Structure formats: structure tokens, C-alpha cells
Amino acid sequence: MTTSEESTAPTSLPWWAETVGYQIYIRSFADSDGNGVGDLQGITDHLGYLELLGVQTVWITPFYPSPMADAGYDVADPRGVDPSFGTLADFDALVTQAHERGIRVLVDIVPNHSSQEHPWFVEALASPLGSAARDRYLFRDGRGENGELPPNNWQAIFGGPAWTRVADGQWYLHIFAPEQPDLNWENDEVRADLGTTLRFWLDRHVDGFRIDVAHGMAKPAGLPDAPAGSPAAGPVHHEGGIIPVAEGASDPRFDNDGVHDIHRFIRQVADEYTDRATMGEVWVADPKRFADYLRPDELHQAFTFGLIEVPFEATKIQEIITQELTTHASVNSHPAWTLSNHDLLRPVTRYGGGEVGTARARAMLLVEMALPGAFYLYNGEELGLPSVDIPDEALQDPTWLRSGGVERGRDSSRLPMPWEGDEPPFGFSTSNATWLPSPAEYGPLRAELQFEDAASTLSLVRQAIEIRGSHEAFTGDEIDWYVPPAGCLAFRRLGGLICALNTTDEPVALPPGEVLLSSQPMDGDLLPANSAVWMI
Ligand code: NOJ
Questions:
Q1: Three-class secondary structure of residue 75 per DSSP
Q2: Domain identity same for 432 and 491
Q3: Gap from CA of 110 to ligand 1 centroid (Å)
Q4: Is there a single domain that holds both residue 318 and residue 285?
């Protein structure tokens, strides 16, 4: 124990460490100009909503010029705005107004690949083999007698080989769709250009970046074949429409050691500015290898995907929380919990759908928000939206096409936000021709109704954010576990908050204490089935 006043004073954490984050999937958030696609002005128009909800940081998915082969993750110009989303002036206005409301803005950076319509790739195709223009990408000769076979056995995440052949017989690498050629991170121009892009947005006052496929970029020397049985060697299987971004040493497409040097470079650029943060999408299963991305000179934070990967089972949830906290503590970093994003089935659906799925998703929101660290909601999660399947002809995800109509892809989790009114598209757009259909099922879940309803998921999330931000019980990096009844878990934060979760089908007794908030109305003194509670 220390006697020095200075050393007992609470250290103030950086803004990102415990932030209330919110992912805006721009295409489906709010359409201000009636073209059926959400846009920057649509976000600005809803800043009041975000402020009321208690959001402190938004992550906006790509809005750059793009042919939209992968909904904007195929970037043709990383320093512009696609006309379907607005203009740079709209972007500047959004950042200014978000900051006026105390909301920080992260933009999405896609350094692993560009669009095939990026001027560099157009130039590469028009340039001879071995030219400097080709060296910005990963062009290789094929195998087989006449080079007719791909250079290695890697499969693309969206299905099919990760190589496409061009007119002169060479092949180029694309870990995702053929429209997304992978950049060559051994090329100095590629690195310098990312620096230019980062500074371009930092100069426009963004608070930081979400970095797409942050465990990609670096490739192994010689691009060797993946071992048989590796996900990289295929066949590709997307369970439940989810991208199974592969992890582990057996997959040469990701998590190569050279990636850390790239993160150190990104960090150096971010550190040229004050108080900016980098947040990585790092799908790396091995805890030690994951933690390496969070070393003090690399990413500030990375999405903590653990809760997504486990079913609604108390033991597994407890195990993964413990593991994630240990991993983050090993590098003095702070988790950024998440249950949902635009690549995954929505929690309500993942946890079984219907009333039970909704109850479980609400319970997990309370668990997530009780934990030390930041958390990120995905737009619509606060409304308890389910994933909704849409007709074949409406599907847009490249996975559908690339898998030959076997995998339906991620569209079911990307449908337009229901705001108001009793007809689709529920205030999302003035046009009925929205880029993905607006399902009738979303009508009863629209924001305007949920605001009025104290029992709604929106009201639960609002209250939870409010309590989490104002109550002194939510402090301390560590948690202590109770020994609860089977099928339940309970932990206590240093500041005194107790969070209990009941994953069984029966109500359970709770330890004595004052209830701050519960995900379902309490059953007298009992915690109902599929519910969580906050107590002190
Ligand atoms: C991860 C993004 O979240 C996903 O939507 C995208 O398809 C891939 N990266 C490729 O950029």
C-alpha cells in the first residue's frame, strides 16, 4: 500500500479506453437525398439521436469513391467522398457538428487492398510485366506448363481462388473479391501513400481510424502454398453468413510478422497529432499474437471479438471474458468489446431469434457494458434489430456471387435503419428503392416507437449508457468472479458494480443488493431466465 497522495490519485484514462462507441454502416443509416443509399448528411441529421443515446465515438464505414463491389471496402480514391454519400464539405460539416456535440469520429481505412478502379491498378494493368506500376500490387506468373494455374493454392474469403489472371497471362492476388487487388506492402510508395491518406483525414480533424483487416497487409516471403486443411486452402465455408476471417499460424494470408512494422508506421503518423486513436480489426485467435498488435507503439486498441465467438452459455462467456482481460492486461491495453458488426449475424438472431433471442441480446448488452473497457454498438443493435433474410434477387454481398449462390453473405445484417412512419423504408429514405430492402419486420422496432416505450431495447441501452457513465461503481480494470448457480455468472468491479447473468430457462435468486438496472423486469427478487442485472 502506498502513502503518497499522488500515486493513489486515479489515473485518467485516454478518451478511447472506455468510450461508448457506435458503428455507423453509412449505406444503411440515413439517406438524406433520396437515392436509396445512406449518406454523410443523413448522419449529421441524426447526431441528436446519437447524443441522446449517449454515444461518445462513432466509427463510420467507408464513404470513399468506389465502384461498390464490396459495399465501399473497394476504395478507388482513399482521399475523397463518393458522390452517392455527399461531398468533402459534407464530411467537414459532419465532423464539426459531431465535435460540437462531444462526439468523436473514427473513419475506416482500408490498407490491405484497393479497388480495381484505383488509378494505380488501372495503370498496373496497362503496364508491362515487372514494371514499377505492377510492383504496387502482387502480380506473379502462374504455375503449370503455360502459367495457366494460380501461383499458389490460396482461396479468397468471398469464395474461389485468391488469384485472377490478366490479359498478358500474369495473375494478381486478392484475398477478398477480384475487384479488391491486394497492395504490395513491401513497396515504399504504398506505405508513403497510406501516410498521405492518414494525414489527409487527420488534418480534417478526425479523431482516429478503424483499420480494416489490420492483421492482413504483410504477406509471407515467396507466397507459399497454405498447408492442406488450412482455411486458406479452402473450401470456403461461411457459417450463418459470417465471414470466417481465418486465424492462426496455419493461414499464410493473415497475421504475418511483417504486419507489426506497418502498425508502427501508422502509429507514428497518428502520434504526429494530439489525442488521436487507431482501432484495429484484428481477427487473430492466439491471445499472445493478438496482444502483439496492442504493444505501446502499435494500435491503440483492437475490437475485442471474444463475446461474439461464444454461445449464450455462462461458462464459455466467463472463460472468454477472463481470457480477454488477461490478454489486454498483458500489454496494458483496454478492451473494446463488441457483440455485433456489419459482417456478422445480428445478436438477436445469433442467440436464437424471436423473444428469446431478443432477451439474450439485451442481457449480453448489459454484460458487455458492465465490463472494464470501451464497447461498440452496431447501428440498429440499440433497437434490437434481428438479421432478416431477403430474396435472392435483392442480395448484394459479393459472397453470394462468388460462392455460386451457396453462401447468402452479410446483407441480412445490413438492412436500412427503421426510424419512423408505419411503411417501409420507415424514414430511412424518401425513396422506396432502397439499396437493400427495408423489411416490414422492422416497423414495430422503429426508433420513434422505442423512444416512447420505457421497456424497449432503445430505452434499456440509453439508461445503461447513462448509468455506466455517471455511477462511481463502474470503475477499476479488474473484476472478481462469484461462484454462482449453474448456468449463471456474476462478477464485481472494483468500484462495486455487480453484474449477474442468467442463461438458464428458470428464474434464479440473487445476492442481496440494490438493483440499478435489469434487462427484463425482475421476477420479485429473482432474476428471470435469459436476463442480466446490474446491482450495487
Ligand atoms: C472487413 C470488413 O469489415 C468487411 O466488410 C470487408 O468486406 C472486408 N474487411 C474487406 O475489406
A1: coil
A2: no
A3: 8
A4: yes
Domain identity same for 220 and 337: yes
Q: Where do the H-state alpha helices sit in 129-204?
A: 188-203
Are residues 442 and 499 both part of a single domain?
Answer: no
What is the pLDDT at residue 323?
Answer: 97
How many whole angstroms from 206 Cα to the centroid of ligand 1? Answer: 21
Site to substitute for ligand 1 among 110, 343, 397, 407, most atoms within 8 A of C-beta: 343
**What ligand 1 atom has the least distance to the C-alpha of 158?**
7
Q: Is the dihedral of CA 81, 82, 87, 90 positive or negative?
A: negative
499 and 371, same domain (yes or no)? no
Contacts of 30 (CB under 8 A, 6+ apart): 38, 39, 42, 43, 45, 46, 417, 419, 428
Shared-domain flag, residues 279 and 388: yes
Are 432 and 523 part of one and the same domain? no
**Residue showing cell 497492395:** 183
Max CA distance (Å), the chain: 77
Determine, yes or no, domain membership for 410.
yes
Active site residue 452: no
CATH number at residue 483: 2.60.40.1180
Q: Could you tell me the CATH number of the domain that includes residue 37?
A: 3.20.20.80
pLDDT of 225: 95
DSSP 8-state symbol, 303: E
Q: Which domain holds residue 100?
A: 15-113+188-461
End-to-end CA distance of the chain: 25
Ligand 1 centroid distance, CA of 8 (Å): 43
Spacing, Cα 91 to ligand 1 middle (Å): 22
pTM for the structure as a whole? 0.96
Q: Given ligand 1 and candidates 23, 28, 70, 211, which is best to mutate, with the most ligand atoms within 8 Å of its CB?
A: 70
For the chain, the domain total comes to 2
> Of the candidates 461, 491, 526, which is a domain's last residue?
461
Residue 514 has a pLDDT of 96
Q: Is the distance from the beta carbon of residue 73 to the nearest atom of ligand 1 less than 6 Å?
A: yes
Ligand 1 closest atom vs CA 176: 10
- Cβ–Cβ under 8 Å, residues 447 and 419: yes
Same domain, 378 and 511: no
Mean local confidence (pLDDT), 65-86: 98
Report the candidate in 462, 506, 464 with the shortest Cα–Cα distance to residue 485. 506
Query: In the predicted model, is pLDDT for residue 249 greater than 70?
Result: no
